[in-house]
Amino acid sequence: MKTKAATASIMAVLAVTAIAACSPGEAPAPAEQAAQAWVRKKVVLYLPDRVMKERVEIAALSPYLTAVDEAVAAAAGAQPMQPGASGMLLLMVKPGERSRAFIVTGEPPMKPEVIEAIVNAAGAVPAPSVRQGPILVGLQFDAWGGGAQPEGAVAPIPRAWYAHFSEDGGVLDDALMAKVWPD
After folding, report:
1. Cα-based torsion angle of the residue sequence 155, 161, 163, 169 in order, rounded to the nearest 10 degrees
2. CA dihedral sign of residues 168, 106, 69, 97
3. Cβ-based neighbour number of residue 25 at 10 Å
4. pTM score of the predicted model
C-alpha cells in the first residue's frame, strides 16, 4: 500500500512539474529557439593566423566582431520572418578603419532587403585599426532556423569573386581583395 501511495505521489509531482514547464513566460521550446532571426555559429579567419596577427590586434578584433554580431542580430530581428537561411557574413577591414560586409548563403537564399539590412548594420559598426593590408573574417550564421550551408568550401566567398580567379584557380590574397573591393 505504501508503495502505491508513494508512486502516486511521485506521479503527481511529475505531472505538476510537466504542466509548470508548459507555462507562459518560460524559456522557448527548442523549435522556437531554432527560429531566432540570427544565431552566430562560429568565427572563421580567411587569412593565415600569422597574417592576421601582423595586421590586427586580437584585443581590437574581438570586440568588433561582438559588436557586429549584436548589430546584425538586431537588424535581422527587425525584419519579417522568412524561410530559414544559413551562410557566412564576411567582413573585410582595410587600413583607415574602413569595412565592408558581404553575405553568402545556401538555399534558400535570404531576401535582398534582409541582406541589405544586415550588410548596412555591419557597416555601421566602427572598424578596428588594421595595418599592412586588409583582413577578412567570416561569421557563420543560421537565420530563422537555418537552411542549407553554401556549397563548396568551409569558408565560402561570394560567387562574383570567382570571376577574378584564373582558369587554374585562385588564391584569397591582398590582390583578390583589392579586386573585389577597389579603393
Report:
1. -30
2. positive
3. 4
4. 0.80
